[in-house]
Amino acid sequence: MAATNIGMMDPAYFVGRTELLAWINSTLQLNLSRVEEAAPGAIQCQLMDVVHPGMVPMHKVNFDAKTEYEMIQNYKVLQDVFNKLKITKHIEVNKLIKGRPLDNLEFMQWMKRYCDSVNGGLNSNYNPLERREACKGGKEISKRAAATHGAAKTSSTASKTQSATQTRKNEQHANAVSKSSKPASNRDPVYDEQRMERLNVKQMQITELKLFVDSLEKERDFYFAKLRDIEILCQFPQMEHLPIVAAIQRILYAANDNPSVMAEAQAMISQQPNQEALSLSPISESLEEERPKTESQKRKNISTLEVDMAANSTLSPRQRLSDISDVHHSGSPLVNYCTTLVANSEA
C-alpha cells in the first residue's frame, strides 16, 4: 500500500516546478505553464484516475471550473476518492482554490509522490483524452492542448531549421575571422591580460551570486518547514482552542506585514479573564470559608454574653457565687471565704 503521509523533509517536497509541470503534461497530455493552474482540482482528480482506474467519477469533474463553488465540488469528488481508498491526507481546500503558489506546489508534490508509489505511476492502457471527454469542459481543454502541441512541434521544426542555418553562418564567420586574425603577433599583451582579469572577476561575481541564491533558498525551505511544523502542532484537538494558539495562528496567517497583527495577537492573549486564577487561589478560598465561621462565632459570643447578663440579673448573689465557684474556681479558698461572707450577711 502506498504511503499516504510523508514528512515535510521528504525528498518529494524538493521536486522543482519544472519537473512537476513536465510530469503533469506528459501524464495527462496537457500544456500547463504554472503549477497554480491546478488550483481548480480537476487535474488532481484525473491523476487519481490514472493510478486507480474506475475509482473517480469523471462525469462529476469540472475542468472548466471558474468560481470557488465549482472548484469546491471538484475537491469534494477528490475527498470521496480519498475516503474510499482510506487515504488520510488532509486537503486544505480554502488555500488551494485561492491559487497560492506554495500551497499548490506542496500539494502537487505530494500527488506526484503518491502516484509514483502506486505501481510507479504508470498505466500504459490509460487514455487521458478519452477519459477527459466525460468531464465538463474536458473536450475544450483537450483541443487547446492539442493545438498548443501542434504549434510547439511546428515552432520546434522551424527553430531547428533556423538554428542549422545560423550555425552554418556562424561557422563561416568564425573561419573568416580566424583567417584574418592569423597575424596576431601585433596584439597588445597588456590589453589581453586586463581583459582576462575582467572576465575572471565577472566569473567570480557570478559564482558568488549563485552560491548566495542557493543559501537563501535553503534557508527559506528550512524556515518554511519550521512554520509548517508549528501549524500542524496548533491543529491538534488538545491545543486548537487555547488563546495562545489562536494568537499564533493570527500571526501565521497574516496576509501582510502590518504591525497591528502583533498587537492583535497580544490583545487576544491579554483578554484572558483573571477571575479563574482568583477562584482557584487557596488563600481566597480559605478566607471565604473562614468569614462565615468568624461571623457565627461572634454571634455565639454575643448571645452567650447576653444570656450571662440576663442570668446575673435574675439570680441571687449566693446563686451567682455558687455558679462561679462550680464553673470557674471550684475548691478555691478565696471562693469559700466569699461564700461564708454572703451567708452571714443573709442571716
TrEMBL record:
It comes from the Eukaryota. Residues 173-184 have a biased composition (Polar residues). GO terms for molecular function: microtubule binding. InterPro entries: CH_dom, CH_dom_sf, EB1_C, EB1_C_sf, MAPRE. Residues 14-116 form the Calponin-homology (CH) domain. One of its GO terms (biological process) is cell division. Residues 145-167 have a biased composition (Low complexity). PROSITE patterns: CH, EB1_C. Residues 142-190 are annotated as: Disordered. The keyword Cell cycle applies. It is found in: Cytoplasm, Cytoskeleton, Phragmoplast; Cytoplasm, Cytoskeleton, Spindle. SUPFAM superfamilies: Calponin-homology domain, CH-domain (SSF47576), EB1 dimerisation domain-like (SSF140612). Keywords: Cell cycle, Cell division, Cytoplasm, Cytoskeleton, Microtubule, Mitosis. GO terms for cellular component: microtubule; phragmoplast; spindle. Residues 191-261 form the EB1 C-terminal domain. Belongs to the MAPRE family. This is Microtubule-associated protein RP/EB family member 1C.
